[in-house]
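Support reply, case 0932

Customer input (verbatim):
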Amino acid sequence: MSEDEHPASHVNEGDLNFLSTPASAPEHHHETTITILDNAMMDGWVKLDQCHSNLGLIESLEIVYHPQRIHSLRVVSTRNIGTALVNNNKIELEKIGLNSKICIQASSRALWPSEKKHYELRNGPFMRRFLDGYYPLHITLKVIYPSHRLQLISIHPDQQAMVYPKEDWQCRRRRTI
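Our regenerated output:
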């Protein structure tokens, strides 16, 4: 098979680019809801609910989390996936079909004190890697927090083309009231 006939030969190299128009094919959609409970301001652990859809027609893949920042990882549901096994900080998937989806729950160490009475929510990096390149990834991030104790100050990185922060997607820096 020539290089032009093999899709892996079209792996992108270089800088990260935000797409100004949606990809022509359904891209991997990564939906995350982070819930900051009152105890998170003491220990930094938040509740993580996450779904991955449109994983692609592939024999196997892994969803990997930072080993020191994830615990109680479990699979909640799957669709069009042969097997999904939790192995420490990874979920190992096999026999992924079209229109596939997996949803997980975990505790994630994502809330960090930054200044006096300020917190930073660090989540990511998000990437879809294959061989030596990265492929398009659609990310939806929702953050639920105790509004009587925290307030959104800013979101980073700044807005990019095709990135639409909404008031209920509060993403990064928080302050106690």
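We compared this against your earlier run and they match. Two observations from our side: The first strand starts at residue 28 and ends at 35. Confidence is low (pLDDT under 50) at residues 1-6, 8-12, 164-177. Please reopen the case if you see a mismatch on your end.
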